Amino acid sequence: MAALVATAVGASVVAAAPASAQFPVGVGPVPITFHMRDENGKWFDSGLNLFGDQSLAVAEMPRLGTVGGLTTGGELTSLLNSDLGGALGNLVKNVAGQVPLLGSLGTELWKALNLDSTLSTIQSIGASNPQALPSATKAAGLLGQFAQALSTLPANQPVNLNSLPVGIDLQGALNDLAKFAIKGPPVTVNFIVDPNESSGIRDPMGLIAPQGAQGFPYENPAGAFFGERSIQLTEPGLYAFTDMVTPYMLGAVVVDDPLTIGLDFGKASQVNSRGLVVPTNSDIVNRLVNTFFNITNPNNWQQFKGDTENAFNPIQPPVPILEYDAAGNPVLIPNLDAYFDKKFSYPKTLSKGNQLPATPGVGEVWVDTEMEEWAGKNKVGSATKIDVTNWTVDRKIGAPSIDMNNPHNMWTDKDYKYLYQTEWFSDKVDVFDRQTGQFIRSTQVGHNPAHVMTEPGSDKLVIGINAGNEIVELAPGATNVLRKISVSPTGEVRHPHAHWTSADGKTVVTPNVLTNNASVIDMPTGTVKTEPTGQFPIATSMTPDSSKFYTADFLGESLTCVSLAGNACNSNGEKVHSKTIDLWSNYSPQDGPKSGAPFGGLTIQLPVSPDGKALLAANVLSQTVTVVDPKTDQIVKDLPCTGGCHGINFGAKKGGGYYAYVSNKFSNVMQVIDIDPNNDGNISDAKVAGQILLDPTSATKMDGSISGKAGYGGQGVLPIPLVYNGWAQQNQGTWRSQLTCQQLNPITPSACS
């Protein structure tokens, strides 16, 4: 075998092969373990740190007679090219701005394409079984010819292996060798949720798996937990996971077949969205993978600068990936980083962080900058106040004295004395003095409280218990729990997230991510009825007259309209009980979005404006805000947001009309949208009116110091004064005097005649 290897690639490549690949394997795979933690970028902590990402793990599918199990140490370094950073750094573009050829790597090309690992596998099979030696000799020779053929190609160009004669021959030879090294046991993945590492309970689920993988789509009907759960990965390919409580938390495993070229994504992926089964070389798979690395690697979060443009060039692992196209052809992506730079047009230019709207807003806007890191805190997150009369960052509450844990959403009382703040990764709602930022009290409500609103009139609080099965009603001031109402009359676990309260305070609607439905709760009686929605509904809103509500179907790639009384949703000019608004009508999962047409996906918050003119929906997948006309329930247009756009709420624009304030988890800015700039009732001219950097300034009042990720993690948004119907009428004193008559009476124009 030594002679065989030397003949194929030379002694230098033998030395580069992972040492562990030379040892026989007689045991099953070492398990992969994800620790689900609270810290930024460690939400699915695999124990590895690859190019700044700690949420990815790689395993080799065991083949008897070859190396198998979790890839660690030298093997991991080789397979993921983390030992080739310098050599691969110029593969995207050289100093002349041209994409270099793969041959520019010289002998390192073998390592960059994982051919050294494939060769080691060939070697081990030939050495362990004399009958396999002729096939191993042939495969090794073809491997050298294959490397020579690829050396003339650009680094960012996918290669259809069936278009290369040597590619077809090599695949045949590797298939022959597979007969001598049959598949072994599956790869085990453990999910550990330890109270010492995660204050909130978690609920991992499968997002992507190879077609035919047993036990997928993986979901757990029992709900969130502390403890440990395990699954088995039975097929080579890409597996991705999220947390059903906090779905931006992601983890992934690539199970690699050692007898293929590159890291295996599999022939087809089943995507836990609309029941999709697509070739792995499809737009949706590559788009989701790009999104994964931009979310899970904090180095890839968009960092805006206040008064200057700025380059954004996220780093994807510079590894070879084996995908398959719609015709079933194997497609090798020689370098994922170079390929994604081409496909997604990196680097991009980020605009100036501060682009102040010409017309001021009224009052203030609070944004939960949930990923800010503070000195003296173990947990992350703060509440950031923007004075929208002059567009300055006025205050930040990090609350180090209570180690406030991932503050997610806010509301206030009718007198604007308090700031009510949920701790999403904990079990508390905090109360702060809105003017001074001083902490007043915490009230324990249940696992992972997500959103909070008050009931107009009574001023009681309603909290959704995201990792539980109920809403909790608190006394004004959040002094104590008054009652708990289950959102599930049948007893199934539903995981309610972002609820909405009607203008009269009598109806609360919760989106139930675990059961693909919404609970409509009659607050006076506590009775509940259930309405079907799209897949994984994560947020709700209501029209100002409370005639209908909407859900953001995170994995359904849609919005659902549901009537609360008589038929109020619109479908082709008719009033119907419910309607699905398709965000993918201009999107092909195989080929991508239609140029210039609206496209959304992985949608989160979606409020309706106080006057009922517009619904705005924040899309993580497309980094857009979808503008919908509630009078027709049709999409009007898209507007841009930034990395991880998440929260939206409406506040008053000075002199009349409304601004929508848009938060972004993975950038440090907030957008300001004007839904009707000329106030003519036509929202086709809705536009982004400005953008605000959320970093503190020297004048920002703070109760501590930021140690990292300033301005990041934008989630909940709270404009004050409250201008939604039911709350707007409660404005008194100086707050009332700042609003126009129409803003005080958003759906009763006759009051201002």
Contiguous low-pLDDT stretches (5 residues minimum) are 1-28
* Global geometry: elongated
Q: How large is the radius of gyration?
A: 27 Å
| Binned strand content | 25-35%
Number of strands: 50
Structure description:
The protein is an alpha+beta fold. It contains twelve helices and 50 strands. Strands 3-2-9-8-6-11-12 form a seven-stranded mixed sheet, covered by helices on one side. Strands 48-20-19-17-50 form a five-stranded mixed sheet, with no helix packed on it. A hairpin with a 4-residue loop joins strand 34 (about 550-555) and strand 35. The radius of gyration is 27 Å and the shape is elongated. Mean pLDDT is about 90; it is low at about 1-30.
Summarize the structure.
The chain is of the alpha+beta class. Helix content is 14%, strand content 33%. It is built from twelve helices and 50 strands.
Keywords:
753 residues; alpha+beta; 5-stranded mixed sheet
Secondary-structure map with pairings?
Elements: H1 2-9, H2 11-16, E1 32-35, E2 56-60, E3 69-70, H3 73-79, H4 85-88, H5 109-112, H6 115-128, H7 133-150, E4 159-160, H8 165-178, E5 187-193, E6 204-210, E7 227-233, E8 237-243, E9 250-256, E10 263-264, E11 268-271, E12 276-279, H9 283-296, E13 310-312, E14 321-324, E15 330-333, H10 336-343, E16 348-350, E17 364-369, E18 373-374, E19 382-387, E20 392-397, E21 407-412, E22 418-423, E23 428-433, E24 439-444, E25 449-454, E26 461-465, E27 470-474, E28 481-486, E29 500-501, E30 507-512, E31 517-522, E32 527-532, E33 537-542, E34 548-553, E35 558-563, E36 569-571, E37 574-576, E38 578-582, E39 587-588, E40 592-593, E41 615-619, E42 624-629, E43 634-640, E44 645-652, E45 658-664, E46 669-674, E47 687-693, E48 701-702, E49 706-708, E50 714-720, H11 733-737, H12 741-744
Parallel strand pairs: 1-5, 2-9, 10-14, 20-48
Antiparallel strand pairs: 2-3, 4-15, 5-7, 6-8, 6-11, 8-9, 11-12, 13-16, 14-15, 17-19, 17-50, 18-49, 19-20, 21-22, 22-23, 23-24, 25-26, 26-27, 27-28, 29-30, 30-31, 31-32, 33-34, 34-35, 35-38, 36-37, 39-40, 41-42, 42-43, 44-45, 45-46, 46-47
Helix pairs in contact: 1-7, 6-7, 7-8
